[in-house]
Every structure is written in C-alpha cells, then in structure tokens.
C-alpha cells in the first residue's frame, strides 16, 4: 500500500462531494437551503412601491392596497407581501430556485434573527438561469404588472448578460464532477500499486478536475457579483435587496483548492526517486 496516495484520494472524495452538494442544493424545500448562490429579499418591495406610487400618482390598485394594511411594521410588510402574492425571499441554486418567508420576522434585532422558511422550490432544470423578473411577474399574476412596482429594467439587462455564463458554469461543474470521480478511482488504483505512469495519469485527471471546477467557481463568483450588484444598485430604491451565498462560495472554492492539492501531490510523487525492489547480484 502506498501511503502517499491516501491524501489525493481524500482530496478527490472531498471535491466530488462538495461539488455534488453545490449542484443539488435546494433540490427540495429545506435541503441545504443555506448553500444558495444568492438570495433576493423582497420583504420591502410592496411597501416601497406603495409609498412611491401614492406620492407620484402611480397605479391605482397599489394605492387602494395601501388603505387595507393595518398593524405594526412587521404585520404591514407581511400583509403587503400576501396582497401582492409574492414571497419574502427567492434563493437561486444551480438547478432551480426556492421561495418562502422569514420566521419569526423579516427583521432582526438584539434577540431575534430571521431564518428562512422554504415553502416551495421550482422544478430542477439543467442549464437553469435565475430570472427574478420572470419569477415575480408570474407570482403577481396576469392582472398586475411589474411596471406598477417600478421594477428596474437594468436588473433584467444584468440577467440577460449572464445567461450564457450560467450555462457554461453548469457544464463545467458536470465536467469537474466527472473528472473528480475518475480521480477517486485512479487514487484507489494508485493506493494499491502504481508507478510513474500511474502517477502521471492521476496528475492529469486531477488537473482537469481542478481546471473545470476552477472555471465553474470563477464563473459562479462573477455571475453572483454582477447580479447582486445590479439588484442592490437599481432595486434598492423600490425596496429589494440581494445577498451573496457565502456558504456556496466556500464549498465551490474548497472543492477547487483540494483538487489542486491532489494534483500537486501526484506531481511530487512523480518526482520522488524510487528504489529498485530487486537488485542484481
């Protein structure tokens, strides 16, 4: 048994597992909900829009809606969300998105911190692209329009700009997971027996897994930054906010890093001089 092969084996298993978790997070309500790429907070969307519309002569249905809201601040906001038929948050994952509301309250204070209560997730779809404009318009129904909420067109421009990138990201994740799986098999073979040829082959496989996962992680980071910045920059005035999924970024970059470590380990093993097991007399 070759002890040195244990480290790249563990690295490959870790990368394979983390990448799969990134892919399938949010596959059902409550499953790894904290491993989302980004979260869109629409808690204040209706309140801001009503205030704006009543001062600028906006939509009459929003103006009439304001008169129906009673209670304290939390109750008003949650009632507004129900009237608009929208959820309080929408979290984006690689294959789908999930939606729900915050408990016990959308707002945090010294004693209360809001947590996500997921009510539903969309169907999983390969090459999925998170489109908040289409999602919210579908939630509002045919009788209302996002233009009544003064939805910024720049948000949709940002989503359109990254559609190709999100598809490339999914493909790279699939390639990276495939090579990480091959790396596990190669490491198991190298653990039992192997030579420079086996080490070199394992190094190539691990390198390909590292490159695929690295490209996927880079695309994911760039996409999330672009969309979150657009949502916060242009949507803040109507009460929406977006947050980056820090746990997802940790998972994807750790998966990339351990595959790099596995690659370097095989390369080092290739360079270590080997003693001949049988010496000539």
Structure, explained:
This protein is an alpha+beta fold. Helices cover 58% and strands 9% of the residues. It has nine helices and five strands; from the N terminus they run αβαααβββααααβα. Mean pLDDT is 81; it is low at 49-56, 69-74 and 277-281.
Provide a quick synopsis of the model:
The chain has 281 residues and is of the alpha+beta class. It has helices at 6-24, 45-56, 60-66, 73-84, 132-140, 153-161, 163-192, 196-235, 246-271, and strands at residues 38-41, 89-92, 97-103, 115-121, 241-244.
Bulk shape: elongated
Helix content: 55-70%
Range of strand content: 5-15%
Order of helices and strands: HEHHHEEEHHHHEH
Instruction: Determine the mean pLDDT.
Output: 81
How many beta-strand segments? 5
Number of helices: 9
For the largest beta-sheet, the strand count, sense and barrel status come to: 5 strands, antiparallel
Instruction: Specify the structural class.
Output: alpha+beta
Strand order of the largest sheet: 4-3-2-1-5
Q: Terminal Cα separation, in Å?
A: 27 Å
Radius of gyration: 25 Å
Stretches with pLDDT under 50, minimum 5 residues = 49-56, 69-74, 277-281
């Amino acid at each position: 048994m070759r002890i040195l092969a244990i480290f790249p084996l563990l690295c490959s298993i870790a990368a394979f597992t983390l990448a799969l978790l990134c892919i399938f997070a949010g596959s059902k309500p409550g499953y790894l909900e904290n491993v989302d790429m980004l979260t869109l907070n629409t808690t204040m969307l209706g309140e801001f829009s009503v205030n704006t519309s009543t001062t600028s002569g906006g939509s009459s249905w929003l103006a009439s809606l304001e008169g129906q809201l009673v209670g304290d601040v939390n109750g008003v906001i949650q009632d507004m969300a129900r009237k608009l038929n929208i959820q309080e948050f929408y979290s984006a994952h690689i294959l789908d998105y999930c939606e729900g509301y915050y408990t016990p309250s959308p707002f945090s204070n010294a004693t209360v911190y809001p947590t996500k209560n997921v009510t539903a997730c969309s169907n999983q779809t390969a090459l999925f692209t998170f489109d908040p404009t289409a999602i919210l318009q579908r939630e509002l129904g045919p009788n209302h329009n996002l233009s009544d909420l003064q939805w910024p067109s720049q948000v949709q421009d940002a989503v359109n700009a990254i559609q190709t990138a999100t598809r490339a990201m999914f493909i790279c994740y699939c390639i990276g997971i495939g090579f990480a799986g091959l790396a596990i098999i190669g490491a198991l073979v190298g653990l039992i027996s192997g030579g420079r040829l086996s080490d070199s082959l394992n190094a190539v496989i691990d390198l390909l897994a590292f490159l695929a996962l690295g490209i996927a992680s880079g695309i994911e980071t760039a996409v999330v930054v672009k969309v979150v910045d657009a949502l916060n920059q242009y949507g803040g005035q109507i009460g929406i906010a977006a947050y980056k999924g820090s746990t997802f970024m940790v998972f994807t970059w750790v998966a990339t890093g351990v595959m790099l470590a596995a690659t370097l380990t095989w390369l080092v093993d290739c360079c270590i001089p080997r003693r001949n097991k049988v010496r000539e007399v």
